[in-house]
Amino acid sequence: MTLTSFGPANRIKRSAETHPLTWRLRDDGEAVWLDEYQAKNGYAAARKAFADMAQDDIVQTVKDSGLKGRGGAGFPTGVKWGLMPKDESINIRYLLCNADEMEPNTWKDRMLMEQLPHLLIEGMLISARALKTYRGYIFLRGEYTTAAKHLNRAVEEAKAAGLLGKNILGSGFDFELFVHTGAGRYICGEETALINSLEGRRANPRSKPPFPAAVGVWGKPTCVNNVETLCNVPAIIADGVDWYKSLAREGSEDMGTKLMGFSGKVKNPGLWELPFGVTGRELFEDYAGGMRDGYKLKAWQPGGAGTGFLLPEHLDAQMYAGGIAKVGTRMGTGLAMAVDDSVNMVSLLRNMEQFFARESCGFCTPCRDGLPWSVKLLMAIENGEGQPGDIETLLGLVGFLGPGKTFCAHAPGAVEPLGSAIKYFRHEFEAGIAPVSAVVPPLARPIVVGA
């Protein structure tokens, strides 16, 4: 996995001043364990938070920093923290780390957990102090076996050093932390489905309100944050709000840095910590090196399979939520995928929609029935057996499964790439529509089982 610096030619060394998430990484890619982490100023922010800051001051500092969720939704972290109840009589509260990183083409949290497990633990420790939570869980994607091993070792190291458990740093504050591996469902990325799964229930999203801050794990106040989000907290506490805001490029409404990447047939696929506001072109050309010889960029997704496709002319958009919104899609996880000119968009979308259909929890009708329907139509078009009106039906499904039409955001994310692909590459879909003479009556068309 590649980690480079701000400089396109890698001449600028990562430092604590410019790369708060990645400056401690080892060049050999091995994990940074407790002794080395503390030698690199690890847990200094936690000691500051425990010794010098009131709990409400920690919350206010994070709110003032402008830190937003790094899992894809981008909700302001300090605002979410502020939703936790102020009633001191509620002495059972939970902090959950959403490490169920199942978004296709996304691996940023995996890198942090495998190589910097103590950064996540320190972020959770400070957050627990701020939120008065006595127990935390890292809900980890089941396939991340190396991350599980490293996190469990780091938890034991922190316990032995008095950084987890009872009376942490002599403060009288107790915090227990557990690593919980999931059973492998994409829907667990939705925070209330994650909570249900942690409780041993089926991973269905819950109705909101009440929100987890009021009624979460086992009916108690709960805060759920993404891995990368929590890993930003120590630097904010250690170095302050003004410094953190100064990291972003001019024009960006999002503060700090972001782990961004590019995959596909690019010369240098990888992952980099970059300031919010860099352009997609910088990310694609200066860091990913452009397309491999013999390939041309046809389209790209800015942040995972649940974001809409963009064209090469959109590469000048700034990589932050508002900047990507200006060209018609979402920032998502910030890990982009290049689609080369050898890829048929119908086949790519059929593959994507099959994944999303299979990962639906099946709770609401539009998602449960609409996504398999889209797969059926895409398979027909892919095989040259599409019928007149199929493209319009697909566009209708994009509308029926859009934001506000389903119980959670799974279906809207699933159909966003479909709608954009038809918008920009409709001719490829039209090529799969059979001649009128070959039209099959609707009742005679095959039913796709298990799509």
Please give the count of helices. 16
Look up the CATH topology of the largest domain: Rossmann fold
What is the total tally of β strands?
8
Order of helices and strands: HHHHEHHEHEHEHHEEHEHEHHHH
Number of domains: 3
Named CATH architecture of the largest domain: 3-Layer(aba) Sandwich
Q: Which regions are unreliable across 5 or more consecutive residues at pLDDT < 50?
A: 4-12
Q: In which order are the strands of the major sheet placed?
A: 3-2-1-4
The helicity comes to 25-40%
Work out the strand percent: 5-15%
Question: Mean of residue pLDDT?
Answer: 92
Fourth-tier CATH superfamily name of the largest domain: NADH-ubiquinone oxidoreductase 51kDa subunit
Q: How does the major sheet shape up?
A: 4 strands, parallel
> N-to-C terminal Cα separation, in Å?
33 Å
Q: What characteristic shape results from the CA principal axes?
A: globular
Radius of gyration: 23 Å
* CATH class descriptor of the largest domain: Alpha Beta
InterPro entries: NADH-UbQ_OxRdtase_51kDa_CS, NADH-UbQ_OxRdtase_suF, Nuo51_FMN-bd, Nuo51_FMN-bd_sf, Nuop51_4Fe4S-bd, Nuop51_4Fe4S-bd_sf
Domain NADH-ubiquinone oxidoreductase 51kDa subunit iron-sulphur binding: 346-391
Cofactor: [4Fe-4S] cluster; FMN
GO molecular function: NADH dehydrogenase (quinone) (non-electrogenic) activity
